[in-house]
Design brief:
Order of helices and strands: EHHEHHEHHEH
Low-confidence stretches: none
Distance between the termini: 15 Å
Shape: globular
Radius of gyration: 15 Å
Bound molecules: inosine-5'-diphosphate, magnesium ion
Strand order of the largest sheet: 2-3-1-4
Helix content: 25-40%
């Protein structure tokens, strides 16, 4: 089944939004496959955001992601990669739709609360980087009530 990497960034943790974010993914019907509350090293941050290395905001992005603990998660379900991006909303919270996580809670692009993998391949790379094989294989008993 499809999986994606989701991270509640330091601003989401500091603002007490961890429960709300997890609740949205749970209520949608996705399944948690891994979760850890952790500090992010400089090296991990730079690897995770390597694609943005040449962007002007790279330095402040790395400083931000390493500034406090994050909640790293793997969520699983049909179409979870693209669907998570819809739940999360546009990169800039000011233009993210109301009802999305960024649209409901954010104002600033440098404080946009949450990361979600942008494609299936990226998700696989990010899950390997953050979790390796340390994932939980399980099937919620409610599954037949979510999938026909
Ligand atoms: P995404 O998180 O929606 O996939 P990306 O374009 O991949 O957005 O950018 C990664 C992260 O870099 C964003 O979530 C945001 O935290 C930060 N970022 C992107 N663009 C800007 C910007 O113009 N200024 C400051 N930070 C930015
Ligand atoms: Mg991205």
């Amino acid at each position: 089944m499809e999986r994606t990497f989701i991270m509640i960034k330091p601003d989401g943790v500091q603002r007490g939004l961890v429960g709300d974010v997890i609740k949205r993914f749970e209520q949608k019907g996705f399944t948690l496959a891994g979760m850890k509350f952790m500090s992010v090293s400089q090296e991990l941050a730079e690897q995770h955001y390597g694609v943005h290395k040449e962007r002007p905001f790279f330095g402040s992005l790395i400083e931000f992601i390493t500034s406090g603990p994050v909640v790293a998660m793997v969520w699983q379900g049909d179409g979870v990669v693209a669907s998570s991006r819809l739940l999360i909303g546009a990169t800039n919270p000011l233009t993210a739709d109301p009802g999305t996580i960024r649209g409901d809670y954010g104002v600033n692009v440098g404080r946009n609360l949450i990361h979600g993998s942008d494609a299936i391949e990226t998700a696989q790379t990010e899950i390997a980087l953050w979790f390796g094989d340390d994932l939980v294989e399980w099937m919620p008993t409610v599954t037949p009530w979510i999938y026909e």
